[in-house]
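[audit] Reproducing an earlier prediction to check determinism. Same input, same settings, fresh worker. If the tokens differ from the archived copy the diff job will pick it up downstream; this log only records the rerun itself.
[audit] input (720 residues):
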Amino acid sequence: MKKIYYLILLFLTISTVSYGQNLEIASQSFNSSAADTWGIFYNSPSFGSNPYIFDYVSSITNGTDIIGTVGGSDNFLGVKYGNNVFPPIDEREYSLYFDTFTLNDASKDHLIEFDYEYIASSSTYVPDVTYTIYNESYTPLVSGTLLTTGTSPATGIATESISLPKDTYTYSSGLTMVLFISYPTGTIDAEWENTLLKFDDFKIYENGFDGYVYNSGVWTAPTGYPAAPDATTGSIDALIASGTYTISSEVDLSSLIINSDSYAIIEATGSLNVTELTTNDNLTINSNSSQFGSLIVDGSVTGSTTYNKHVNSQPDNDFISAPVTGQTFGSFASANSNIPSTTGSNIKFFGPWDRTTGSYVTWTTTGNSNRTLDPGIGYRTGSTDNGTFSFTGTVNTSSVSVDVYHKGDTPASQWNLIGNPYPSYVSLYDFIDYNNFSANGADILQVSRGGLYGYNAALVDYWTVYNLANTIGDSNIMAPGQAFYIAVDNDLTGVMTFNPDMRINGSGDDFIPGRINTYNKRELILSLSSDDVMYHTNELYFFDDIVTLGLDNGWDTAIYGNNDSGYTLYSQLVESNSSYKMAIQSLPNSSITEEGVTIALGLIASANKQLTLDIKETTFGENVEVYLEDIESEDSWTLLNDQAYTFTTTEKLNGTGRFYLHISENKTLSIDDENAIESLKFYTGNKTIKIKGSLEANTTLTVYDIQGRKINNIALKKCD
């Protein structure tokens, strides 16, 4: 009696394993459910009349024993007769169906490989088993024999390798392997219940891989290239054939293929730039509190990726977004037991900002389990252990647009929580520039808040503000999966866009400042502190040609909210002041080099508090002097270049009018300057100096003692 079994090898997924130096292009190891993996193929080829499918099983009972697995998998494909169902006397067809697969290179030889095992009580019950490989047109390509009647099969698992030389076959999208089983003649008895034909680990290989090959810690490099991939190998392919490859610095490749039985890890210090990537679900990216692994893919990605993103521990908040997306919240919550939750409840400390109510949502593992973690959406959360949250999903390689809006009758809706959707760093400057001035972003953001607001638990008021002024330069970057707020203008709806051109290599914490000088950028950052506690900073930037003394969209940005109850230092615009409380103000360099500039400072502080105003950072040269004027102090002028200014509030402060900043350059005297000085008259006596005359520009008077020690600096205003 003869039985015919069809195994349709029409593989969809291009996977990645090597057979020696060969590249695996398709595989099936039966590790998922039969319904997800297989379909019944009834129609063609037609070699018989009664089609059936193989049994897809995790174990088959042989009497009281469980017959083992094949290839280390819990699941395999089996042909089994039991429960008094003996081999039928009529001829039957058994077939399985895969979707089509695509050859990487039809000009190369290919290899089909699979594991099989036949279990029987004796050689009496061993059939003839042969096979024929057919192409998608059902033209036979090659035949072979697996078992022979009357011969005991090999003990344990056998591997069959079928070679398909390119000059003896023609196929492009599918293969069908047909098994012919001829049972020996004689008595058909119950012993057939104890026979089992098993198959597992089907693979199709492409002969020869041109590029780097990694085998269990050892690289085989192409001729003329470094011993292992690095930042100079962007034109070369790489294959992780076995073992675990760890990336701890920058690596550039044309393509990376990870074996289905191998792994790759991008450490927190590492970055991978690649055009094509096949992960086989075996790529992991790590991060810690100060560094984040980075992945940039310019082409396509096959398979999922896991990103382990560091998250601050409670009681501090953290604003995050999914660096890889598509995962459901139920799956995400199950994978991360360190998401804080209410004792005895399914409420998790994780959720988006509700723009209608002005509060954070806390998701539950019941009501929100099917919600997907979509790209570009920001979430408020925190961890129980200052550890990482594991995200598993799709690597975004194209533009991501996030819907934003502001309903005028709902003030909270102006604040939209969004985040970096890529597993790579993003240039802050490029994001702010694009979304302030591109066609889709223009006029969406509030003109006084054309930047972004990052949460910083180390600050008393929690917010760090970024705009074009303090992010200009490629080293100013946003970490993978970092979320932040943007402020949408009144009654507007639009989108904020992340595009692949914004991605950039980098290393560091959530928001990383840079120091690349552009447009002759100079900066002055003031600090407000008390008892070694840094309350707030105010940032002033000076550029050539690109900004004015008034409001410049994207370059001048107000503080988050009004912060009326906290300690806040801000400035007012020099011109066209509309009572904006500026966290960042940009000014032209000419305002310093010509006559000097006076900037009104605003302060929010409680009464009876000793506070200190000081220069936190500056790139000014020694020729630029920065004076702080306190109109309520007897010693009203303080040269901040030399010392900080400390005072005690006698009442609650909330506004401007008391403190002014005077910034100007000290010039070498010209002949005209000397003539102007000669026109002044100086009178001394009783420890005072009186000056009589006319000044054409703001001037600084420095007093020294007879030993050359500087005693005081006094700012003199020009005569109007």
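[audit] rerun output stored. Observation attached for the diff report: The longest strand covers residues 653-665.
[audit] end
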